C-alpha cells in the first residue's frame, strides 16, 4: 500500500512539474501545506509576542482602573476610529487579492494589492499625524509637562507607544511584503496558482488587522466608557 | 588507538557503487563561500556545530575564571564588579548561544530530515537565516563583553537592570532578542517538517523519539520565545526611551518583569533538556539492543512536560512576594511536572533491563545523563517545595541543581549524540577507548565540581558572591578541582574528534547496527540524503524482531 502511494505521488509529480516546486518537496500540495502551516505557526508566535504586552496592560488596568480610564480619554479617538475603518477595508482588499490569485486573475490581483498598500500607507500617515498631536500634548512618559497627574497615566501612555509602535512596525513589514509581491506579480516572476506568496502575504496582513482590533478598544474606546 | 572497536559492519546495508552516483554533502564543493551560502540542512548543522563550539569555549572560559576566583575565600583575582560581569557572560552565552541551539540546531538540523527520509527541512533558506541571526545575536553579546560587559546576571532583573545598571544591558538584550528569532525560525522549520514531510508509512506514532523530542522542544520554543522578545523589548525601551513599564516611580511593577521573564525562562529549561532526552533514547535503545520500553508513554511524557512546563514559572518567585496561594499552586504544578520526567527515567531503565548492553562512549554518556538528570530532577523537587525553597533560594544549592540538569544532563546528552552520529556526520570513526575515557572523566569531574555545591548551598553560601567566609573554602576547593577534571574531559573530544577527521577509519553506513532511516544512507550522506526513497518496514526500534526470541533466561 505504501509503495502504491509512493508511485502515484511520483507520477503525479511528473504530470504537474511546475517551476514553483522546490526540489525537496514531492508535489505542490505538500509545498503549499508546508508554507501555510509555517505562516500559521509564525502567527502563533506573534500572538504570544503581543500577548506579553496585553498581559502587562491587563495587570495594570486591573490594578489602576481609574488612572487608566483617565489616561485613555486623552487618545485621539477620531483618528483611531478612521484608522480602524481604513485597516479593515485594506483587509478586505487583501482577502479579495488572495481569492483573485487562486483564480489566476493577474490584473485584479495587482489592483487589489495596490489598494491594500494605498490604504496601509494612509493608515501610517494618519498614525503619524496622531503621534504628532500626541507629542504636542506632551503625552509621552518622559515629558516634563506630562499633563496627567496620576502615575498610572504614564504607564498607560508607555503601553500606548509600545502597542501602536510595534503595530506600526508590523504594518511596515506587511507593506514591504506586499510591495515585493506586487512587483513580482507585475514582472510575472511567479505563478499565481502554483505559488502561495499572495496567500502568505494575505494571511500576515490579516493578522496585523486583527491585532489592531484588539488595540483599538483597549487604547481608544475604553476611555469613553464612562 | 590501534584497534577501533566497532560492531560488525552490516554489509547488506551497503549499496555497492552508491557512492559513485552522487558526491557526499562534504565533498561537493569546498569553498568557504559555498558553505556560507548553503541551504543544505547537513551543512547548516555543521555551521551550527562550529558556532556553538566557539560559544561553549567562550562561556567555558568565563566559568574557568569563576572557579579560579572561588578557589580562595578572598576576592583576589577579580573585583566584585568584574566577577558580576564574568558570571553574567557565562550565563548569557551558555544559555542562549550554546544550550538552546546546541541539540536542536546541530543534531536536529542534521538528523530530522534524514530520520524522516526527506531531502531537506521544509524551509532551507529560513534555516540558513536562523544561523546568521544566531551569529549576529552572539556578536552583540560578545561586543557587549568587549565593550565592558554586563553585570545584571543572565536574568536581567528589574529595577536593577532598568534603573541602576550602567553596563551594556541594552546591547546584550538586543543580542538575545535577535537570537530569539533564530530560535523561532528553527522551531517553525522543525514543526512544519515533521507535520508535512513524513514519508508514506511513517505515522505519528512510528517516528523515532528523537524526532518527537525535537517536535516538543519546537512547540516550547515557539510559544515561549516571543514572550522573552517582548519582555526584552520593554526592558530596552525603558532604558533607552524612558517608557516605564517596570518602573515603580511611574506605578510600574518590577515583579511583572519576573513573571514575564520566567514565563519564557522556565519553559526554556525544557528547551534545554527535552532534546537531550531524545538523543539518550536513541542511544540507549541501540546499545541495549532493545525496543524502547513504553513508546507511547515516552511520547506523552514529552508532550506533558512541554505543556505543564508553561504553568510552573512561579516557582522561581517564592521569595519575591507573590501571593501565598500562587506559590502553593506553582509548587503543586512543579511536583506534577516531575511525573512525566520520572516516567522517562523509568522507561530508559526498563529499556536497558535484560538488554545486551555494551559500553560504547555514547552509551556511557547516555547512562551518565540518566543518573545526573535524576539527581538534578530530584533536587528540583526540594526547590519546588515552598518551605525548603525559602531556605535554599539564591544559594549554591540552586546553582548545583540546574547545572545537574543543564550540564550533567544536556551537555552529556549532546556528547552522547555527537559521538553516536559522528560516523554519520563525518564518515569517520572516532577512537573508542579515548572517547570512553573522556566520558568517564566527564562524569567524575562533573560530580566533583557540582556535588559540593549542594552542600555549600545547604550550609548557606549564596549565589553570585566573589568572596566568602573561610568555613566554605574546603567545598569550593573541591569544586574547583573538579572543574579542572571537567575542563580536561571537554578538551579531550576536541582533540580526538578532530584527529579522527584525518586519521580515523572510514565509517560504514551503519557502524552501530542501529535502526532508523538515517543509518540506511551512506556515511557521510549524499547531498540529497538518499539515492532511492527509503522504505519504512517494521517499527522504529526493531532491535529484536518478534519472530526472533531473545536468549533464554537460562543463558543469562
UniProtKB/TrEMBL annotation, chain A:
The chain crosses the membrane at residues 39-65, 77-97, 109-126, 159-183, 203-223. PROSITE patterns: COX3. The keyword Transmembrane helix applies. Residues 37-224 form the Heme-copper oxidase subunit III family profile domain. It is a multi-pass membrane protein. InterPro entries: Cyt_c/ubiquinol_Oxase_su3, Cyt_c_oxidase-like_su3, Cyt_c_oxidase_su3-like_sf, Cyt_c_oxidase_su3_a-hlx. Its main location: membrane. It is found in: Cell membrane; Membrane. The keyword Lyase does not apply. SUPFAM superfamilies: Cytochrome c oxidase subunit III-like. It comes from the Bacteria. Keywords: Membrane, Transmembrane, Transmembrane helix. Belongs to the cytochrome c oxidase subunit 3 family. This is Cytochrome c oxidase subunit 3. It comes from Jiella pelagia.
Amino acid at each position: 500500500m505504501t509503495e502504491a502511494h509512493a508511485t502515484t505521488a511520483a507520477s503525479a509529480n511528473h504530470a504537474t512539474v511546475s517551476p514553483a516546486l522546490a526540489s525537496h518537496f514531492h508535489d505542490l500540495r505538500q509545498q503549499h501545506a508546508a508554507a501555510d502551516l509555517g505562516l500559521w505557526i509564525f502567527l502563533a508566535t506573534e500572538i504570544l509576542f503581543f500577548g506579553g504586552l496585553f498581559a502587562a496592560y491587563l495587570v495594570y488596568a486591573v490594578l489602576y482602573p481609574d488612572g487608566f480610564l483617565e489616561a485613555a480619554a486623552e487618545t485621539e479617538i477620531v483618528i483611531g476610529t478612521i484608522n480602524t475603518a481604513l485597516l479593515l477595508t485594506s483587509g478586505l482588499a487583501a482577502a479579495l487579492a488572495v481569492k483573485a490569485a487562486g483564480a489566476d486573475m493577474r490584473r485584479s490581483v495587482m489592483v487589489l494589492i495596490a489598494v491594500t498598500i494605498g490604504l496601509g500607507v494612509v493608515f501610517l500617515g494618519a498614525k503619524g499625524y496622531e503621534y504628532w498631536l500626541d507629542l504636542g500634548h506632551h503625552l509621552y512618559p518622559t515629558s516634563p509637562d506630562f499633563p496627567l497627574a496620576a502615575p498610572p497615566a504614564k504607564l498607560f501612555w508607555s503601553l500606548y507607544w509600545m502597542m501602536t509602535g510595534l503595530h506600526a512596525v508590523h504594518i511596515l513589514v506587511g507593506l514591504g511584503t506586499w510591495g515585493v509581491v506586487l512587483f513580482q506579480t507585475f514582472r510575472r516572476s511567479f505563478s499565481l496558482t502554483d505559488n502561495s506568496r499572495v496567500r502568505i502575504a494575505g494571511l500576515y496582513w490579516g493578522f496585523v488587522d486583527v491585532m489592531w482590533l484588539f488595540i483599538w478598544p483597549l487604547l481608544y474606546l475604553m476611555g469613553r466608557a464612562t | 588507538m590501534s584497534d577501533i572497536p566497532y560492531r560488525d559492519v552490516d554489509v547488506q546495508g551497503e549499496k555497492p557503487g552508491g557512492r559513485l552516483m552522487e558526491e557526499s554533502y562534504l565533498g561537493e564543493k569546498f569553498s568557504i563561500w559555498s558553505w556560507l551560502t548553503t541551504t543544505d540542512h547537513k551543512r547548516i548543522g555543521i555551521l551550527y556545530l562550529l558556532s556553538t563550539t566557539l560559544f561553549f569555549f567562550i562561556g567555558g572560559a568565563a566559568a574557568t575564571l569563576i572557579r579560579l576566583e572561588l578557589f580562595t575565600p578572598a576576592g583576589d583575582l577579580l573585583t566584585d564588579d568584574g566577577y558580576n560581569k564574568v558570571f553574567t557572560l557565562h550565563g548569557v552565552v551558555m544559555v542562549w548561544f550554546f544550550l538552546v541551539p546546541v541539540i536542536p540546531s546541530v543534531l536536529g538540523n542534521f538528523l530530522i530530515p534524514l530520520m524522516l527520509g526527506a531531502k531537506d527541512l521544509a524551509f532551507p533558506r529560513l534555516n540558513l537565516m536562523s544561523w546568521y541571526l544566531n551569529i549576529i545575536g552572539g556578536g552583540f553579546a560578545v561586543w557587549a563583553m568587549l565593550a565592558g560587559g554586563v553585570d545584571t546576571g543572565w536574568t536581567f532583573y528589574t529595577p536593577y537592570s532598568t534603573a541602576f545598571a550602567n553596563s551594556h544591558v541594552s546591547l546584550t538584550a538586543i543580542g538575545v532578542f535577535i537570537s530569539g528569532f533564530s530560535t523561532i525560525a528553527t522551531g517553525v522549520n522543525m514543526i512544519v517538517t515533521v507535520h508535512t514531510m513524513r514519508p508514506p508509512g511513517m505515522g505519528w506514532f512510528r517516528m523515532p523519539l528523537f524526532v518527537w523530542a525535537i517536535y516538543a522542544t519546537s512547540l516550547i520554543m515557539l510559544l515561549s520565545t516571543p514572550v522573552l522578545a517582548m519582555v526584552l523589548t520593554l526592558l530596552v525601551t525603558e532604558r533607552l526611551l524612558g517608557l516605564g513599564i517596570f518602573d515603580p516611580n511611574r506605578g510600574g511593577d518590577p515583579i511583572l518583569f519576573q513573571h514575564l521573564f520566567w514565563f519564557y525562562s522556565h519553559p526554556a529549561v525544557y528547551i534545554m533538556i527535552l532534546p537531550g532526552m531524545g538523543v539518550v533514547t536513541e542511544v540507549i535503545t541501540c546499545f541495549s539492543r532493545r525496543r524502547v520500553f513504553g513508546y507511547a508513554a515516552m511520547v506523552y511524557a514529552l508532550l506533558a512536560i512541554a505543556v505543564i512546563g508553561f504553568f510552573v514559572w512561579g516557582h522561581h518567585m517564592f521569595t519575591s512576594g507573590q501571593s501565598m496561594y500562587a506559590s502553593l499552586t506553582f509548587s503543586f504544578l512543579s511536583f506534577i511536572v516531575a511525573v512525566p520526567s520520572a516516567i522517562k527515567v523509568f522507561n530508559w531503565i526498563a529499556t536497558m533491563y535484560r538488554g545486551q548492553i555494551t559500553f560504547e562512549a555514547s552509551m556511557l554518556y547516555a547512562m551518565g545523563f540518566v543518573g545526573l538528570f535524576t539527581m538534578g530532577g530530584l533536587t528540583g523537587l526540594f526547590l519546588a517545595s515552598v518551605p525548603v525553597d525559602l531556605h535554599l533560594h539564591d544559594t549554591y544549592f540552586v546553582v548545583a541543581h540546574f547545572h545537574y540538569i543543564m550540564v550533567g544532563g544536556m551537555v552529556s546528552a549532546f556528547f552522547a549524540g555527537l559521538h553516536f552520529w559522528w560516523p554519520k556526520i563525518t564518515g569517520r570513526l572516532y577512537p573508542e577507548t579515548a572517547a570512553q575515557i573522556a566520558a568517564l572523566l566527564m562524569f567524575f569531574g562533573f560530580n566533583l565540581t557540582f556535588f559540593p555545591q549542594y552542600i555549600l548551598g545547604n550550609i548557606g553560601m549564596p549565589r553570585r558572591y566573589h568572596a566568602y567566609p573561610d568555613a566554605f573554602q574546603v567545598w569550593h576547593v573541591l569544586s574547583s578541582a573538579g572543574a579542572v577534571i571537567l575542563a580536561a574531559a571537554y578538551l579531550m573530544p576536541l582533540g580526538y574528534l578532530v584527529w579522527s577527521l584525518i586519521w580515523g577509519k572510514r565509517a560504514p553506513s551503519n557502524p552501530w547496527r542501529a535502526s532508523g532511516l538515517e543509518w540506511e544512507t551512506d556515511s557521510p550522506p549524499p547531498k540529497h540524503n538518499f539515492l532511492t526513497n527509503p522504505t519504512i518496514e517494521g517499527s522504529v526500534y526493531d532491535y529484536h524482531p518478534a519472530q526472533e526470541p531473545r536468549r533464554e533466561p537460562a543463558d543469562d
